[in-house]
Amino acid sequence: MHGFVRMDVTHAPPNRRRDELTRQANALRSNLIQHIDALGRRRRQALDPRVQLRRHFRGVLLGAGVAVLLAAGGLAFAAYKLGERRSRRGWLPALVGAWRRPDAPREARSRGILPAVAKVAKSALLSLAVAAVKQAAVRATAARAPAE
Asked: What's the pLDDT tens digit per position in 107-121?
């Protein structure tokens, strides 16, 4: 009997029994409608990005910060490896030279498709990370701004 109410109207007159059944059916229907409305509200809140951003603002900010740090760490590591290959004097002079003269000829790169794919993948991931951080910042400021 999962939540069903047992009705004891066997000794009542027929009209009174029908009225009691109608009243109980209406009460159950009203209760069901309230539960369906509550579930609809919770579903809308669960799928609304603004509500989720408001609820989980710190987590989104932390995730964006980690993504930026990982991207910066990857770039620093790539610059270190690039400088290590270019010059045995150290990575800093090679990085400074590349910054000052970006059009200067570089030593030959390794051939093949894998380095090109890696370069494209790094660029795409960095672009996605920057776009995600920017969008999170815009939404966060829009969510915190008072409505006009």
From this structure: 544 555 666 677 878
* Count of other CB atoms within 10 angstroms of residue 60: 19
Contact present, 53 and 137 (Cβ < 8 Å): no
Q: At what angle do helices 57-86 and 91-100 cross, to 10 degrees?
A: 100
Supply the pTM of this predicted model: 0.37
With CA atoms as reference, report the closest residue to 58 among 142, 145, 148, 136.
Answer: 136
78-116 tens-digit pLDDT: 777 765 555 555 667 767 777 787 777 665 445 556 666
Whether 83 contacts 94, CB under 8 Å:
yes
In our burial notation (b when 16+ CB lie closer than 10 A, e otherwise), range 117-141 reads eeeeeeeeebeebeeebeebeebbe
Q: Give the whole-angstrom CA distance, residue 32 versus residue 36.
A: 6
Cα gap 69→61, rounded to integer Å: 12
DSSP label of 7: P
Contacts of 50 (CB under 8 A, 6+ apart): 139, 143
